[in-house]
Design brief:
Belongs to the UDP-glucose/GDP-mannose dehydrogenase family. This is UDP-glucose 6-dehydrogenase. The chain is α/β, with parallel strands linked by helices. The protein folds into two domains: about 5-205, NAD(P)-binding Rossmann-like Domain (Rossmann fold, 3-Layer(aba) Sandwich), CATH 3.40.50; about 215-464, Rossmann fold, CATH 3.40.50. About 45% of the residues lie in helices and about 15% in strands. The strands form three sheets. The protein has a six-stranded parallel sheet with strand order 3-2-1-4-5-6, with helices on both faces. A six-stranded parallel sheet has the order 11-10-9-12-13-14, sandwiched between helices. α5 (about 110-120) runs parallel beside α6, α9 (about 215-245) crosses α11 and α13 (about 350-360) crosses α14. The protein is globular, with a radius of gyration of 24 Å. The structure holds uridine-5'-diphosphate-xylopyranose (2 copies).
Length: about 475
């Protein structure tokens, strides 16, 4: 079967970019991305393509090429489901904040709502593709809902996890290390569905890089990949603390071990802690699944990755307080960067949120500058923690438009995100306008220690 019409439910960080690339590379397939969030869809349709709701290098060019040709954004979910022969589910699956599995399990209510909506609307056979990261065996639940509430049509469920990283989404999608497709390999219809999705990717991905497995392996591979990546960051961050109390330097250690081809050089950058929508959520989910099967040692093993990450964020904030003579009360602290990594405006689980919250509890005054994150988002992130009232957050936090403005008259500056522009700031001028001693905390190992110490800064970097 040849796919002619694709619908994707969820126009977020995953659904938006993924569908834009599929549309760009497959001009004969009509791709409609739908979302219940009207504001988001309006932004995807903004005549000024620079105003699309997600900032990713190269994405606006792709959208400019395909939008209106075979790429459409809409809030009419029913119409898009009806027209499609393949439906991607890309809605968010946050960690549950209530009830059973609270704080650990993935909340699948949006996934279930999608399944029920598809079942209600569908009048012909459809292939359903899980794009959202899901607990193992979610496909089974999806299938039962679809088969029991549908109009007697046939649904094939595929798992096709997304491995793109934010900030490099376009290159990751153009040149994926692999595309993973899980499906029912044991049935004729299942194999046909898998082949239909393979054919979509084959527009630009070589066959050797398209992997097909059973559904459960595919679902679990996504959780495993994120767990392994996060584990590397927690491992190097654990060593960063040890480096700080010895004479070792974590960057030198990372380079030395990374040259071992069995270890490899990537994902060994010590930092103030990993963030993003996936790592923590997926590991918590893995821990929850392991526990639910009674595999307590497996659960504890992976949970440690999260505990280490929490420790790293707290440790960085505590270092600031200790260095500033054990008090930051009433002191102005500039945070450079709020996004969870550079080249994205995404702030979910960003270390900056937790460091700021810690410092606010110590009664610091925080000034934030991030080149891509809005004031509205920064305040919403802090309000969401619920540590103090919204009024108090607004009293203690200021968001400014330049790094220089953030640092002026500050007692300390902390680099939270590795934005390239922070490397080339006029640090001499910044030093002049800060209170002395001028403390600089590099949570990303971004800056040149020697040069900044020469300028007069009291300089601290993670892991040295
Ligand atoms: C994705 C994946 O889908 C998630 O499983 C993964 O682990 C993290 O990344 P992401 O695209 O980053 O999620 O989420 P988000 O940017 O929140 O986008 C989800 C979109 O789905 C939102 O725009 C939301 O409005 C929409 N949505 C949600 C619907 O259209 N319908 C719903 O019922 C629920
Ligand atoms: C991750 C996975 O990489 C991707 O495959 C999956 O689809 C979604 O989750 P993402 O969260 O977008 O992608 O970004 P990633 O580059 O993995 O970074 C995650 C966090 O780890 C960031 O906060 C980053 O700053 C941090 N990190 C990463 C480090 O602190 N050190 C490193 O060496 C690498």
């Amino acid at each position: 079967m040849k796919v002619k019409n694709i619908c994707c439910i969820g126009a977020g960080y995953v659904g938006g970019p993924t569908m834009a690339i599929i549309a760009q590379k497959s001009p004969e397939i009509t791709v409609t991305v739908v979302d219940i969030n009207e504001k988001r869809i309006a932004a995807w349709n903004d005549p000024d393509v620079e105003q699309i709701p997600i900032y990713e290098p190269g994405l606006s060019e792709v959208v400019a090429e395909a939008r209106g040709r075979n790429l459409f954004f809409s809030t009419d979910v029913d119409a898009a489901i009806d027209a499609a022969d393949m439906i991607f589910i890309s809605v968010n699956t946050p960690t549950k904040t209530y009830g059973m599995g609270k704080g650990m399990a993935a909340d699948l209510k949006y996934i279930e709502l999608c399944a029920r909506q598809i079942a209600r609307v569908a009048k012909n056979d459809k292939i359903i593709v899980e794009k959202s990261t899901l607990p193992v065996r979610t496909a089974e639940a999806l299938k039962r809902i679809l088969d029991n509430t549908g109009n007697g049509v046939n649904f094939q469920i595929l798992s096709n996890p997304e491995f793109l990283a934010e900030g490099t989404a376009v290159t990751d999608l153009h040149k994926p290390d692999r595309v993973l497709i899980g499906g029912d390999l044991d049935s004729e219809k299942g194999r046909e569905a898998i082949q239909a999705l393979v054919d979509v990717y084959a527009h630009w991905v070589t066959p050797d890089n398209i992997l097909t497995t059973n559904v459960w392996s595919s679902e679990l591979s996504k959780l495993t990949a994120n767990a392994f990546l996060a584990q590397r960051v927690s491992s190097i961050n654990a060593m960063s603390e040890l480096c700080e109390v010895t004479e070792a330097d974590v960057q030198e250690v990372a380079k030395a071990i990374g040259m071992d081809s069995r270890i490899g050089p990537k994902f060994l950058k010590a930092s103030v802690g990993f963030g993003g929508s996936c790592f923590q959520k997926d590991i918590l989910n893995l821990v929850y699944i392991a526990k639910s099967f009674g595999l307590n040692e497996v659960a504890d093993y992976w949970e440690q990755v999260i505990l280490m990450n929490d420790h790293q964020k707290r440790r960085f904030a505590a270092k600031i307080v200790k260095t500033l003579f054990n008090t930051v009360s009433g002191k102005k602290i500039a945070l450079l960067g709020w996004a969870f990594k550079k080249d994205t405006n995404d702030t979910r689980e960003s270390a900056a949120i937790y460091v700021a919250d810690y410092l606010l509890n110590e009664q610091a005054e925080i000034v934030v500058y991030d080149p891509k994150v809005t004031q509205e988002q920064i305040l919403a992130d802090l309000d969401y923690l619920g540590t103090r009232s919204e009024e108090e957050n607004r009293k203690l936090i200021t968001v400014v438009n330049t790094a220089e403005a953030a640092c002026a008259e500050a007692h300390a500056v902390a680099v939270m995100t590795e934005w390239d522009e922070f490397k080339t700031l006029d640090w001499e001028a910044i030093y002049t306008h800060m209170l002395k001693p001028a403390f600089l905390f590099d949570g990303r190992r971004l800056l040149d220690k020697e040069a900044l110490t020469d300028l007069g800064f009291e300089f601290y970097a993670i892991g040295s």
